[in-house]
Design a protein that fits this description.
heterodimer, A: 275 residues, alpha/beta, B: 256 residues, 82% helix, globular, binds adenosine-5'-triphosphate, binds magnesium ion, transport (chain B), ABC transporter permease (chain B)
Chain lengths: 275, 256
């Protein structure tokens, strides 16, 4: 069977002013299965946002193939919802209008059904009292939440999120993470979740992709087989710590992260499966 | 706090009011001739000598040319800026021309325009248009190009057509810039109208100043000058009011 989303030997370089080019991604390959929750971690500048732009069809890779549903991505598609790294709100529209903006921009009109859906999404991200406020009256974290509500509005089959919680405080962040899992559980979708937080990645994902910087490469893929539904309790699971330290090893000591820790993860995964 | 800000608000007017007696006293005690620098009381007297209807006539003539020229300029410059932002080719070819036109003194072109267009209202509009054009195009283009790339990505991810990207995202995003450009341009429009009247007109405050000075009625010219400053100020305030009333978000410094 075809994988739902797949990257095959994808490299991407950006042209620079002086005619040279910056290699942002080098030979990246991975598959995502339908309704899988995949997290991407890696240091700043390793090409995570580049990955988002390639998957969402905003640009073509200079080498390799990006496939969705078995066909090559050549342009942006309707099935994908994107949460950008910067909260890209339109400063002249209030929260509700910002949330329905994609529909309006695409079709020229917004049905009352879409509007009530928008209301629900705004409530879901905890901004019910701010529905009529303008973006410049919101904090950075609130703006990010509007961006999340906007991406979820049309219930996309694929959701790509670029550090969606980076401007949130630790408490709201955790809460939003579980909220995301609840939505994902309720209306299953394929998620690519870019984050700087190892804890967040392990807590949310089925699979964590670890990237190494300059040029961005995929240094490891780790399956997280913690039981679902996950909650704040999951953090106390001993397996949780093993996964986290394994990922940490890969990020900070990519060459040393060898057989020992891999063996321990495999052992844990086996144990979890047997449970 | 409130009385302090009230003081702040009226400070310019208060300063002016306090300067008036000083001006009067200096003119009188040094016997400054009226044809060089008239005293406020003399200016006021000569202001009263001219019938209100005639003042209104001149005022309206100037205001009309300024506003029509400004409006015309706005109607040409914003679409042009949109086209130039959309096409590298167009902006590369047109921009140098705009700079050349801008760096040629309008005062020097004015007589030429009048020989070209005749002595009607057309050359006056053309001159006003010319002088207000550059700040409007440049501010609109700057604003549209300053649109965050993520907003453009958002539009492209929806596969929205290019014209929508410009109309629904770049244009509104550039409004704060356009308003700054408009504030510069609206005061320039009065200058344009006056310059045009200096060259050829039978009406207008510019014409009135030229006419008065050629008959050594300097106090009258001063009265017209004060009128001109007041119109400029009022138009500037009007633009600001429109901005804050209809586009309040352009004035608040936000993170968005
Ligand atoms: N438009 C561009 N032009 C040139 N180089 C770029 C461009 N966008 C990204 N890069 C380069 O590509 C590399 C990867 O950038 P990218 O934005 O994908 O990183 P990232 O992993 O998202 O970083 P962060 O975690 O800081 O957001 C960086 O070295 C960056 O300098
Ligand atoms: Mg990034």
């Amino acid at each position: 069977m075809q994988p739902y989303v797949s990257l095959k030997n994808v490299s991407h370089s950006y042209p620079t002013d002086k005619g040279k080019s910056v290699l942002a991604l080098q030979n990246v390959s991975f598959d995502i299965e339908k309704h899988q929750f995949v997290a991407v971690v890696g240091p700043s500048g390793c090409g995570k946002s580049t990955l988002l732009r390639l998957l969402s069809g905003l640009m073509m890779p200079t080498e390799g193939q990006v496939n969705i549903f078995g066909t090559a991505v050549t342009e942006p598609r309707d099935e994908i919802g994107i949460v950008f790294q910067q909260p890209t709100l339109l400063p002249w529209l209030n929260v509700t209008e910002n949330v329905v903006f994609p529909v309006k921009h695409k079709t020229g009109r917004v049905s009352s059904q879409t509007r009530s859906q928008a209301q629900k999404m705004i409530e879901m991200v905890g901004l019910a009292d701010f529905a009529k406020r303008m973006p410049n009256e919101l904090s950075g974290g609130m703006q990010q939440r509007v961006g999340i509500a906007r991406a979820l509005l049309m219930d996309p089959e694929i959701l790509i999120m670029d550090e969606p919680f980076s401007a949130l405080d630790a408490l709201t962040r955790e809460e939003m993470g579980f909220e995301l899992l609840r939505i994902w559980n309720e209306s299953p979708k394929t998620v690519l979740f870019i984050t700087h937080s190892i804890t967040e990645a392990v807590l949310l994902a089925d699979k964590v992709l670890i990237m190494s910087p300059r040029p961005g490469r995929l240094s490891a893929q780790i399956d997280i087989q913690l039981p679902r539904p996950r909650s704040a309790e999951t953090i106390h699971d001993p397996a949780f710590a093993t996964y986290a330290s394994e990922i940490r090893q890969h990020i900070y000591h990519p060459h040393k992260a060898g057989e020992d820790s891999k063996a321990s993860v495999t052992a844990i995964n086996k144990k979890l499966v047997n449970l | 706090m409130t009385h302090f800000s009230a003081l702040n608000r009226y400070l310019p007017a208060l300063t002016l009011l306090m300067l008036l007696p000083a001006w009067e006293v200096i003119c009188r005690s040094f016997d400054v001739p009226a044809y060089l620098f008239p005293s406020p009381s003399l200016i006021f007297e000569s202001f009263m000598e001219v019938e209100p209807a005639r003042w209104l006539e001149h005022l309206w003539a100037t205001l009309r040319v300024a506003l029509l020229g400004f409006g015309l300029s706005l109607m040409i410059s914003i679409p042009l800026a949109m086209l130039m932002v959309n096409s590298q080719y167009l902006s590369k070819t047109l921009y140098p021309f705009l700079v050349i036109v801008q760096s040629t003194p309008v005062v020097a072109i004015a007589p030429l325009l009048i020989t070209m267009f005749g002595s009607g209202e057309a050359p006056r509009l053309a001159i006003t248009c010319l002088i207000t054009f550059f700040p409007l195009v440049v501010s609109a283009m700057t604003g549209m190009l300053a649109t965050p790339p993520e907003l453009i990505d958002l539009s492209r991810s929806l596969r929205a057509p290019r014209y929508k990207e410009v109309l629904a995202i770049r244009l509104p995003y550039s409004l704060p810039h356009i308003f700054s450009g408009m504030k510069v341009a609206i005061t320039l429009s009065i200058i344009g109208a006056v310059v045009a009247e200096f060259v050829a007109a039978e009406q207008g405050l510019g014409y009135f100043i030229q006419f008065s000075t050629s008959f050594f009625k300097v106090p009258q010219a001063f009265a017209a000058l004060i009128f001109l400053s007041l119109i400029s100020l009022a138009l500037f305030k009007l633009v600001h009011w429109i901005q804050s009333y209809f586009f309040g978000w352009t004035l608040t410094k936000g993170k968005a």
